[in-house]
Design brief:
alpha/beta, Rossmann fold
Length: 262
């Protein structure tokens, strides 16, 4: 029951998609700070290089970048192949890359659905499938490999903003995560979702600029999420403490969902 053993991720190999910015960057820092080897991937190669420079200055763990454009299926395949060349196993896959699109209902374009669903849902399945052999090799008795899907409270409630494809994609991701938990449990792999509330990220920047006071007023804990909040949840799910948790959707939102009023 030693706390250092329960929450230990030292030596684990982790891939965080979208790990160069926003919530993904917060998660990556949590792993690196606690001794994990972290690979980050996004289509912005410069942002990836900047992030790994910063992460490697932190000390304990190690960070590497494999940039990839997740809108392209062949790029996802390339990422999986490149990671397989560098590592013989994978302990944790964090599916964090995502996009959003907001527009009035009567003007909402069909192309937005293709773009958002491709990145937020379709490519999560593609990448997870391709990396399942590495995850199986990373699993051991009592210490399964972990899939952590970064969802959203907008997949649990009706969103205030007109982000139709985004909220639908996140609701789909939450259910896909449960399906994967059932399907992959026999391969000693867990699958869980973090339904995140507001955090300070590029995606949320404009919304927080306009509505932060209103958003905070609707959160029982009366604040925006911090890096420790989301990184801590990932460390729990990735460590011995979370080894018997699968198929769960954990809200990391300060109570926003339970306080929501339509």
């Amino acid at each position: 029951m030693d706390i250092n053993r329960l929450f230990n991720v030292e030596g684990k190999i982790v891939l965080v998609t979208g790990g160069a910015k926003g919530i993904g960057r917060m998660i990556s820092e949590g792993y690196v700070t606690n001794g994990a080897t972290v690979y980050i991937s996004s289509r912005d190669a410069k942002a990836c290089e900047k992030a790994i420079e910063e992460l490697n200055a932190l000390g304990k763990g190690k960070a590497y970048a494999i940039p990839a454009n997740f809108y392209k299926e062949e790029e996802v395949q390339r990422l999986a192949e490149e990671l397989s060349k560098r590592e013989s196993k994978l302990h944790v896959l964090v599916n964090n890359s995502g996009s959003n699109w907001g527009a009035p209902y009567d003007q909402y374009p069909s192309s937005a659905w293709t773009r958002v669903l491709t990145l937020n849902l379709h490519r999560v399945f593609d990448l997870t499938k391709l990396l399942t052999p590495l995850l199986e090799k990373g699993a051991s008795p009592g210490d399964p490999a972990r899939i952590i899907n970064i969802g959203s409270i907008d997949g649990l409630r009706v969103p205030a903003l007109e982000t139709f494809a985004y909220s639908a994609s996140k609701a789909g991701l939450h259910h896909l995560s449960r399906v994967l938990a059932n399907h992959l449990g026999g391969r000693n792999i867990t699958s869980n979702t973090l339904a995140c509330g507001p955090f300070r990220s590029k995606m949320m920047a404009e919304t927080l600029r306009k509505y932060e006071d209103l958003i905070v007023a609707g959160i029982p804990l009366a604040r925006i999420g911090t890096p420790e909040d989301v990184a801590g949840a990932c460390l729990f799910l990735s460590s011995r403490a979370g080894a018997f948790v699968t198929g769960a959707t954990i809200t990391v939102d300060g109570g926003a969902v339970v306080a929501a009023k339509l």
